[in-house]
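From the pipeline queue, job 12 of 40. The input is one protein chain; the requested action is below.

Action: predict structure.
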Amino acid sequence: PLAAKMQAWLAGAQSTGKRARVPDDLDSLPKDQLVALVRDLAKERDGLAEVAAKRPVYTTPQTSRAPGTASAATAPTDQEVLAILSRLRAKAEKAIKKTKHSQARKPYSELTEGVPSKALALALMRGQSAFQKSDTARMTRWLFESDVAISKWLGIERHIHPVAFDGKVLCFAGQRPTIYAYAGIESLEVKWESSSNLMTLKFRTFFAGSGRPGVSFDDDEF
């Protein structure tokens, strides 16, 4: 019985990585030798525990996220929202200016922006619930039909200029027809799709008039 108890106790000491030399005939050892053996083993265990306590602990550094992105586990910051809105506004102005306008038609201009989570998409559209038309697992959609509301949300001007023009222009013979055209915003559809993590803005615009800033701005009739 004494040998079994000693072997169990020694197993705990050996699990720390320190091997103890113990005689096989523990039952026949005198009491004073057993006491000395136990004290030596206890001293070894305490020493190993002290070494383990002083061992440095290394932690894995966290990977930082790129500016303008948001993970699904964290709430989007105002800085992230403003950065994306700024990019959307710049892309919208560029797309509308490149789109050809005329008196006869109302063209569409479309652009996309990566939005990695629905939480970020909803943060971008904060305060625009009145314009939300659908919200499913596949897609969330908003529709603006007021240039005032569009300008207030995106910060874009209600009239974009100069825009490409391919309508009719009156000029004298031998002159090259030129026109400084303006576009007005009629509507805006905003969609966020979970499968692609893309937000799509689709503007419908119209020819609103012509004339250089500070000179004139009139609705042209031909």
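Job complete. The longest strand covers residues 181-193.
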